[in-house]
């Protein structure tokens, strides 16, 4: 029996083979979904059907599959420190191997091996040639041969030297300008300042609805009689709409449709503006300025955490990474000016901090990408949630790194194999813990689905890092219980009106409406009877729009079609809804599948343009026509800015970087690579990004850019994390502790 059979290696054990196959199968499934969305995209651009799927669509899908699988393979090979493509050939032995081989230059840089000054085939020192003269060494001959002999060669050498010095100079200053939080804060403040000072604010229908809600509630509190439930009445709750059976007996005009805390804050600010100035416009500008400052603070704090690793300067981590046996690794401080020692010392950046090119890419993305710029002043719930999520994403990275540092300290052993250290739990400072809690609280008050995300994060955090359970309870679980629980209690007590359950049935409504419009004869009579108390199928067919489910559920105030009978529907009427929907899907599965894909394919089709981009809020009619005096200030400028963003986004390939689905697709591919590489601890705080992709699919509209903002904002930092995890065998420990392999 062979040694492999007696002691099978991890690569030969059946259970590990099954694990490898399962991980690759999961990655292939993700790529198949992306390829399918790319293949059917052209069909839905023309409002066609998958029944018209042809060889050209198959070619699109095959090409997308090859490209996406190539990206995953390259990511996996880079993560394993292998050449991205092909095999590596060892110069000495001629052996070809794909595993964990770096080019010589990178190998020396990672292991800090000095470059050879002499070749191995140089003549030994002290030997002489046959004629008694000292032989010319190989090094000297190389030096002589490298001297430029022509004017063109000397000019090229000078250009290369100048370029190298220029690059070093720029790199040094880029790092110097981004090595502190206040510097990043200043960069984002100055770089974004043109938006609030020239565009002032950006908003849509949601802000108007929140202002209307608070106004009606204020009128009620001040004793003004207003219409409530009645066939001819039309209250703010009818706009969304919210079924009348959800309205409490005692009149109330506040709802949780756009999050009650945010509605109270926005509404009260605009009410104060109307009282003081006679219009909402000054209040809107004040709200946009506050969100702008919040965006600057969140972005600067997160960039500082990822680029500069500030926790490594703290005493507990610095003590853990200090190695008195290796003074050549340097200290934690450097002189402020070498020629002026009286100026003292300043903390030095850790060696694992990001390089200049990464810093420049992060700063340029946030300062130039229209999604990021317009989100700073767009007064709708999704940008606020996105910046709060980005803020929390930085804290998750710090917790991830500190957990690795704790495990490294606990796993130290001496030469005999005896453990020499006890587990050291590196805790967050009190100020950081408070900020982490605040970020989660802002997420909860800005998006109703935030509590699903936070509970998912809590479960993953406890599974990945049990020792720090108290931190997760305080920062995640308690805010979720207090805020979400408090809102639920207010709804159950009748103080406010909760959201209509119909909001969560967008996919089903689109399927029913598409079948009612394009194949009404296939709807079973039993399904018609079961849906009759809830929906008017004729109106659903008339209101159907492939990209958006809002018209089908009668949302909005313009050209409102009563397809959803929100005035008369009762809770019992919804009992057979799922049964009727299933009957319709079985009767016409092709049209039902068309409805599903038409509503969500754009999030995963890289060539699809946004249905609603962030620049919509810049020049929407609510800003340009329905405001009091804001519409007269820089009216043409807002149009030019929005048109420029649209024109840039419409450019093939070059415009992809301005679209949210570009970052969604690449994030999904990086996640698939992390699954294959078994980076479970990194996945524990990356998986909420996947959960947000599920939110996109169930959202009312297709390729709605504001739903993709959290993924787009975190993408650059996700790439940086993947690079650091791939840098060396124990890179996560290196980032946290500064230890070198």
In a few lines, what is going on in this structure?
The chain is an all-alpha fold and 741 residues long. The protein has 3 domains: 14-85 and 659-735, no CATH class; 164-334 and 346-410 and 424-494 and 614-658, no CATH class; 500-599, no CATH class.
How many helices in DSSP terms? 29
What Rg, in angstroms, do the CA atoms define? 31 Å
General shape: globular
Percent helix, as a range, is: 55-70%
Runs in which pLDDT lies below 50 for 5 or more consecutive residues are 1-6, 109-113, 115-137, 139-143, 315-331, 729-741
Count up the domains: 3
What's the number of extended β-strand segments? 4
Mean pLDDT: 84
Task: State the major sheet.
Answer: 2 strands, antiparallel
Give me the side-by-side strand order of the main sheet: 1-2
C-alpha termini separation: 37 Å
Q: Tell me the structural class.
A: mainly alpha
Strand content: under 5%
Transmembrane segments: 21-45, 57-76, 184-205, 282-303, 360-378, 384-403, 424-443, 472-497, 653-676, 683-701
Protein name: Membrane protein
Organism: Bifidobacterium stellenboschense
Keywords: Membrane, Transmembrane, Transmembrane helix
Model description:
The protein has 3 domains: 14-85 and 659-735, no CATH class; 164-334 and 346-410 and 424-494 and 614-658, no CATH class; 500-599, no CATH class. Mean pLDDT is 84; it is low at 1-6, 109-113, 115-137, 139-143, 315-331 and 729-741. The protein has helices at 3-6, 14-45, 55-79, 104-111, 138-145, 151-177, 181-192, 194-199, 205-221, 260-277, 281-308, 315-321, 356-368, 370-375, 381-410, 430-446, 450-464, 469-493, 506-518, 525-531, 537-543, 577-587, 589-600, 621-624, 635-649, 660-676, 680-698, 709-727, 731-737; strands at 88-89, 96-97, 333-335, 345-347. The two termini are 37 Å apart. The strands form 2 sheets. The chain has a two-stranded antiparallel sheet. The chain contains 29 helices and 4 strands. The longest helix has 32 residues, at 14-45. It is mainly α and 741 residues long. 58% of the residues lie in helices and 1% in strands.
């Amino acid at each position: 029996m062979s040694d492999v059979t007696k002691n099978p290696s991890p690569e030969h054990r059946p259970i590990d083979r099954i694990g490898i196959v399962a991980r690759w199968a999961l990655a292939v499934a993700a790529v198949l979904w992306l390829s399918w969305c790319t293949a059917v995209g052209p069909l839905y651009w023309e409002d066609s059907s998958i029944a018209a799927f042809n060889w050209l669509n198959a070619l699109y899908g095959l090409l997308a599959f090859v490209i996406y699988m190539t990206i995953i393979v390259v990511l996996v090979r880079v993560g394993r420190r292998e050449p991205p493509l092909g095999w590596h050939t060892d110069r000495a032995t001629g052996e070809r191997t794909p595993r964990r081989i770096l080019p010589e230059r990178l190998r020396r840089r990672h292991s800090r091996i000095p470059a050879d000054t002499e070749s191995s085939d140089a003549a030994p020192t002290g030997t002489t040639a046959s004629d008694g003269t000292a032989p010319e060494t190989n090094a000297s001959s190389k030096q002589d041969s490298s001297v430029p002999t022509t004017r063109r060669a000397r000019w090229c050498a000078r250009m290369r030297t100048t370029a190298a010095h220029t690059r070093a100079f720029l790199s040094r200053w880029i790092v110097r300008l981004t090595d502190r939080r206040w510097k990043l804060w200043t960069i984002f403040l100055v770089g974004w300042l043109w938006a609030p000072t020239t565009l002032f604010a950006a908003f849509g229908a949601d802000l108007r609805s929140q202002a209307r809600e608070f106004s009606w509630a204020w009128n009620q509190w001040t004793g003004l009689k207003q219409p409530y439930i009645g066939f001819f009445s039309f209250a703010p709750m009818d706009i969304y709409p919210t079924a009348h059976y959800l309205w409490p007996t005692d009149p109330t005009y506040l709802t949780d449709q756009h999050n009650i805390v945010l509605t109270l804050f926005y509404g009260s600010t605009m009410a104060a503006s109307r009282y003081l100035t006679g219009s909402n416009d000054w209040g809107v500008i004040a709200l946009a300025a506050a969100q702008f400052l919040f965006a600057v603070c969140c972005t600067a704090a997160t960039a500082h955490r990822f680029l500069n690793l500030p926790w490594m300067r703290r005493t507990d981590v610095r003590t853990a990474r200090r190695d008195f046996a290796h003074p050549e690794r340097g200290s934690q401080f450097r002189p402020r000016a070498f020629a002026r020692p009286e100026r003292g010392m300043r903390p030095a950046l850790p060696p694992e901090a990001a390089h200049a090119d990464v810093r420049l890419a992060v700063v340029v993305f946030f300062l130039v990408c229209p999604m990021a710029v317009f989100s700073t002043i767009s007064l709708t719930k999704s940008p606020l949630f996105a910046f709060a999520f980005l803020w929390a994403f930085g804290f998750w990275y710090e917790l991830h790194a500190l957990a690795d540092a704790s495990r490294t300290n606990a796993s130290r052993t001496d030469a005999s194999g005896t453990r020499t250290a006890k587990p050291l739990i590196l805790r967050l400072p009190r100020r950081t813990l408070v900020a982490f809690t605040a970020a989660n609280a802002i997420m909860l008050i800005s998006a109703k689905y935030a509590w699903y995300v936070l509970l998912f994060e809590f479960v993953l955090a406890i599974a990945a890092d049990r020792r720090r359970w108290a931190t997760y309870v305080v920062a995640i679980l308690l805010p979720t219980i207090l805020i979400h629980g408090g809102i639920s209690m207010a709804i159950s007590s009748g103080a406010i009106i909760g959201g209509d359950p119909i909001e969560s049935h967008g996919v089903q409504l689109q399927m029913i409406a598409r079948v009612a419009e394009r194949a009404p004869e296939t709807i079973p009579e039993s399904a018609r009877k079961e849906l009759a108390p809830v929906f008017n199928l004729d109106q659903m067919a008339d209101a159907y729009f492939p990209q958006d489910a809002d018209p089908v559920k009668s949302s909005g105030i313009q050209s409102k079609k009563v397809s959803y009978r929100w005035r008369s529907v009762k809770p019992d009427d919804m009992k057979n809804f799922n049964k009727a929907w299933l009957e319709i899907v079985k009767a016409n599965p092709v049209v039902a599948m068309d409805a599903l894909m038409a509503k969500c394919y754009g999030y995963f089709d890289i060539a699809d343009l946004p249905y609603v981009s962030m620049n919509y809020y810049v020049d929407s009619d609510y800003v340009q026509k329905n405001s009091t005096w804001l519409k007269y200030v820089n009216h043409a400028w807002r149009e030019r800015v929005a048109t420029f963003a649209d024109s840039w986004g419409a450019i093939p390939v070059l415009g992809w970087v301005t679209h949210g689905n570009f970052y969604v697709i690449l994030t999904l591919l990086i996640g698939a690579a992390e699954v294959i590489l078994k980076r479970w601890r990194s996945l524990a705080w990356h998986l909420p990004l996947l959960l947000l992709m599920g939110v996109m699919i169930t959202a009312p509209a297709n390729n709605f850019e504001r739903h993709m903002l959290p993924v787009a904002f975190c993408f650059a930092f996700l790439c940086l994390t993947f690079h650091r995890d791939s840098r060396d065998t124990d890179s996560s420990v290196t980032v946290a502790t500064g230890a070198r392999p």
